[in-house]
Amino acid sequence: MNISDNRLTRIGVFYDGNYFFHVSNYYNYEHPRRARLSISGLHEFIRREVAKAENTDMKLCQVVDAHYFRGRLSSYEADEQNKLLSERIFDDILMNEGVVTHYLPLRNRDGKYEEKGIDVWLALESYELSINKQFNIVVLIASDGDYMPLIRKLNTLGIRVMVLAWDFEYTDDRTGRLKKTTTSIELLREVTYPILMQEIIDNKVMRTDPIINNLFVHRELYQSTRPKENINVATVIPTITLPVQNNTLPIATIKPEITPALTNTGFSINGHEHGTTIRSTVHSLKNGYGFITYPPNNLFFHWRNLINCDFNDLKEGDAIEFKIKRGEKGDDVAYDVMRPLNPVTNYTVQDITPQSSIPTYTNGVVVENGTQY
After folding, report:
1. Within this chain, do residues 273 and 171 fall inside the same structural domain, yes or no?
2. Over 90: is that where the pLDDT of 279 sits?
3. Which of 219, 235, 285, 360 has the most CB atoms in a 10 Å sphere around its CB?
């Protein structure tokens, strides 16, 4: 469509938050980019694509309204699951980019949280705002075919609709299962401007395009804007270190529990009560999950279990603190995984079970009763 005058092209952007979060996780943990999607970068990309599609100047294409819709845990539930801080940080990002947030409470059914009513709310809000604010272009960051009635209604108003779509698949390294995400074909056929994002992002010719690269949060910028921990060493809870014997390394460092341990959860294989804070090191890292050194079998942890750091900031051998709980499969897994707040006692921690023979370290290998770990 040729727009020859200098009228502003008004763009309204509407996020299906759960879908956006899913796509961002894919790029952060599975895709070679290893970075999250950037809200500001996405808006810049949208302005350029609208300018190209409408044959006008990018300066005349402005995001005048943006809205983010998602189901959310209550404050108490988010705090219990150590998600309150990460949710608040993302709220700050949306606020700084002028994105209005719309939340509905998640419903817990049979132990699983469900998102209800968000797609209906997004459709109603976007339709009403399109009428009142007279958008020229509505951009949907969504994949569900349930939005087709909304698109048809917007078409009757003469409003062009653009959809940013991501189709991708990957194999879960831990389960071996193929996971796939696709956008409704009917949805893509109905909109004026369907944008297949994975084709643009993975296009080798586009790798040097700054607008494409700005679709992702730069690690250097992320590190420089993270708040620094201000630890008063005098108030750090003291740790207990078992004595060194026979010129071996310290066997363990245990941080005293600040909150009461979980009740009636049993004990791990090393005799630690579930809910007790333990210190060890990162044994290995995979795509979005890893293992913590914890003889004789290493403990699994997922990126969702991290508290005070990002998964991509971790390196093998990093000191780590964690708690243990019974996983869905009946095995022990780590949760509340975090970097130690005490920078002084950064030890490598191994099995602390009271034993008749103390394991010794030979050339970096733990040897106990002739068995190497």
Report:
1. no
2. no
3. 285
